[in-house]
Amino acid sequence: MKTLIIIREQDYEWLDHFFPGIHPLLVPICNKPFAEFLIDFSILAGSEAIRLVMDGPLSDVERYCENGNRWGIPISYASIKNTDDLQTVIDKNQRFCSEDRVLIISGFVFIQYDKQYNYKTIFASLPDGEILSSNRGSLRLRGSRTETQHDMGNIPLSLLGFDSIDVYYQLCMEILNDISSPYVLPGYSNEAYCHIGRNVVISKSAEIRKPVIIGNNVQILADSIIGPKAVIGSNVIIDRESSVIGSIVLENTYIGEHLEVQNKIASGNILIEPESGISIAMDDPHLLTGIHQSGSAKSLFQSIVHRLAAILLITLQLIPFLLLTPILILQGKWKKSTNSYFTAVSEKYLILTTTTIERTGPFSTLAAALSLDRFTLLFRVLIGQLAIIGSWPVVATPSSITEYSKTKSWYRAAVFSYAETEEWPVNTGDTAIIERYYAAHGNPMKDIALTIKALLNRIHETNTHP
Amino acid sequence: MIISENTFNNITVIALQGTLDARNATQLKQFKSAAASTTSVVINLSEVDFLDSSGLGAIVSIARVKRAQGGDVILACMNNKVREVFEITQVYKLFDIYDDVEAATINAEKKHTSL
């Protein structure tokens, strides 16, 4: 048997509000990513191959699960459109589905199963069609039918529509409270209700009250109280005299000293009240904050290379700029506009004055060919506000915030854009394709080559950018 | 890059083999079946061992031209290297992607006759 797991963006988009930047399949449930529960169940059901099918990004989950070697089962990935119905999804995965029986898990659902139960035999004898369904998804079998049929009534199997933060919280608490956990949970456990990961430092005066699950690389400092009912993710620091009771602390979170976290979910600097779904972002790094990895050497090198390129361009353009600009201003062909633009950092804006040159005479044509309209922007590269090449700055308007929030993972406001370098049509969708490509495949040296290409393209260009 | 052409279920299948980059993106764009605007084509990507932004641009621009005139481009048998580029750039949202050429042609034919 094979398993086809189909998950659609519309079913999990609510999660992004609470756990921004975490792939829905990697959201930890008692410190174990959601995807692992699905994989475990597929293996228990007798699957020999798994395919994850989504209409949203798969790269994060692919990086985590890779080819499935860790579980001893091949895992492949496929993309669909958000308009595809189930039959179309099966058609698109015809080769995967054709030769074998297929268990189809459709929707953003948590499968409540029991690791002790033999689902393989049961599923092998069940006929084609739907096994279970909930408001958020279903479990069905497709392929050859056998004669015998089982009564599903006694089988420990149910679906939980994973559709709100409260469901997520209750599910974690339920798993935590179950003495004979039906799931394989991460961490070391030599007594019931207690799982502890690697490299956990617990101060002598700290108190651990079961049930608890603690991840890897956790520091619990003096006089703090953990539990009952606490899930502490990996890379977490609980500072002294704080208590975490009936709460979930997600990975990379710092809980400051003298804090009481009760019946809440803490993720980075966000504190969520599960029942109401209200979340607040803390501005005070002493209370609650995300623990971030330090900037990589690559980005530092990139920033240095961009600055050096900007210095070189400023040197080359300085004299033509000083000579041509006054003439163009007098001719009225040098048009400036000032706007607020998004930066790569959320909720930070940049006021930029951009220039448009009207290419109607020899001086303006020469100025545009030399990219003098970008001259003043080069100084922003020197102070690190812009990159030499990246995304064309997006004007910050209330209507563009939603669009920007979707692009911010690769957005890097720059003097020259990848789209103009590659001469891609400048419409939002197509520009985003090329920017995402270079965000993943770019490097400082390639950036220099592309900047030169952008400069050369400007010579042949008929219009300047807005 | 080697471009070959076959017909399955009345649908043209363009099979690409080798590297699809800036040097041969134009070759693909000018390929007869790709340039013919109204008919749908299936592009078999199983033998493409490298795809860069220009190659991706060629596929996107063929699709844009075809869709503007009632046709479409359907992609089939993406290997992991190609799928990675489609995934990073989110171009998968623009295309119907099948894991089997025959299934792709059957569905392209269905789509074509329903129009």
Can you offer a commentary on this structure?
The complex is a heterodimer of chains A (about 475) and B (about 120). Chain A has about 475 residues and is an alpha/beta fold. Chain A is about 35% helix and about 25% strand. An eight-stranded mixed beta sheet of chain A has the order 11-12-15-18-21-24-25-26, with helices on one face. A six-stranded mixed beta sheet of chain A has the order 5-4-1-6-9-8. The model of chain A has no long low-confidence stretch (mean pLDDT about 90). Chain B has about 120 residues and is of the alpha/beta class. Chain B has five helices and five strands, in the order ββααβαβαβα. The model of chain B has no long low-confidence stretch (mean pLDDT about 90). At the A-B interface, β5, α4, α5 and α13 of A face α3, α4, β5 and α5 of B.
Comma- or semicolon-separated keywords:
heterodimer, A: 466 residues, eight-stranded mixed beta sheet, six-stranded mixed beta sheet, 14 helices, B: 115 residues, alpha/beta, 43% helix
Provide a brief overview of the structure:
The complex is a heterodimer of chains A (466) and B (115). Chain A has 466 residues and is of the alpha/beta class. Chain A is 33% helix and 27% strand.
Helix-and-strand structural type of chain A: alpha/beta
| Rounded mean pLDDT score of chain A | 88
Task: Report, as a whole number of angstroms, the end-to-end distance of chain A.
Answer: 56 Å
Strand order of the largest sheet of chain A: 11-12-15-18-21-24-25-26
Helix-residue proportion of chain A: 25-40%
CA distance, first residue to last residue of chain B = 33 Å
Which pair of chains has the greatest number of interface residues, and how are they split between the two chains? A-B, 32 and 26 residues
Spatial shape of chain B: globular
Determine the mean pLDDT of chain B: 88
- The beta-strand count of chain A equals 31
Strand order of the largest sheet of chain B: 1-2-3-4-5
Query: What are the low-pLDDT stretches of chain B, counting only 5+ consecutive residues below 50?
Result: none
**String of helices and strands of chain B:** EEHHEHEHEH
